[in-house]
Amino acid sequence: MSNAAAITQADDKALVYLKLTAVSIIWGGTFVAGRYLSTGVPPLASASLRFLLASLTLVAVLAVTKRLFVTLTGRQVFQLFWLGFFGIFTYNLCFFYGLNMISASQASLIVALNPAMIALTTFFIDRERLGLVKTGGIVACIIGAATVIVSKDASVLQAENSSWLGNLVIFGCVVSWVIYSVFSRPLVRQIGPLHTVSFSVLFGTVLLCITSLYTGDLNGSVIARLTQEQFLSLAYLGIVGSALAYIWYYDGIKRIGATQSGVFIALNPVSAVLLGVLILDERLTPLMILGGCLVLLGIYYCNKPAKPLSLGTNRSA
Question: Which residue spans traverse the membrane (predicted)?
Fold first, then answer.
């Protein structure tokens, strides 16, 4: 490989890492935005409106870029439906119903298992070898994320505040996101991140809206009662936190793989805490800083290129 090609490849990877970092910051911001929706708006209605806005944004992007129509095989439509079913519909059902049983901190602690579960699934499905350094990086990410969460709410470790059913339902979020991350890669390569995200989000949105209308959580009065702050929060969640962030996340999966992209999820609680400090005037503790540093170190080692093996100097016989 020429020096120019190597530099271009390094620049492309740097851009991917930058986008994935931005995704984690954006998703950290969704916790702050969600605070404004926690009162007065049913959780299922929030999820439906969020992804309805995301769907409209994605369709608009496809129309503006003149990529609205794409030829899909029956198999691809089937795969996109199941990505939407697990990554959008099931994930949100598990998340919102799980939060009715356990605290947000406990839920965050379980969701922090995402990088490890993605890596484990990728190993069994694709036989993607991790190695000692990457494994150590993933472990550091999990410990760091857990440290940030526990330092914010130590009661998360108290057994009496837990519910085995709630834990199981939130673990459904992890399983759903693993499926959405790992099984998307062939589709992302075939039709690209934009179309994969757009069609999976559309399928998931339809399922969410049908469920919300059936349960009565989504109706005209809920929409009419939305305040300006709540509408802006929904716009952030739908347009930035779903449409843009999901495209960048899938682009990362396409370029560097599910395992290396998945470790950036460990940054979510870190960015949520930092944004809480900046926007909501929450307190930052030394333990939170330590946890954040562990996450950054873990991401670095998980994405660090493997050194080529030295085979020694060739000698003629």
Answer: 16-38, 44-65, 77-99, 105-125, 132-151, 163-183, 195-214, 234-250, 262-280, 286-303
Q: DSSP string of the chain? A: --HHHHHHHHHHHHHHHHHHHHHHHHHHHHHHHHHTTTTTS-HHHHHHHHHHHHHHHHHHHHHHTT-------HHHHHHHHHHHIIIIIIHHHHHHHHTTTS-HHHHHHHHTTHHHHHHHHHHHHH----HHHHHHHHHHHHHHHHHHHHHH-GGGG-GGG--HHHHHHHHHHHHHHHHHHHTTHHHHHHH-HHHHHHHHHHHHHHHHHHHHHHHT-S-HHHHHT--HHHHHHHHIIIIIIIIIHHHHHHHHHHHH-HHHHHGGGGHHHHHHHHHHHHHS-PPP-HHHHHHHHHHHHHHHHHSSPPPPPP-------
Query: What confidence tens digit (pLDDT) does each residue in 179-238 have?
Result: 999 999 889 999 999 999 999 999 999 999 999 999 998 888 889 988 998 899 999 999
> For 213-230, what is each residue's pLDDT tens digit?
999 988 888 899 889 988
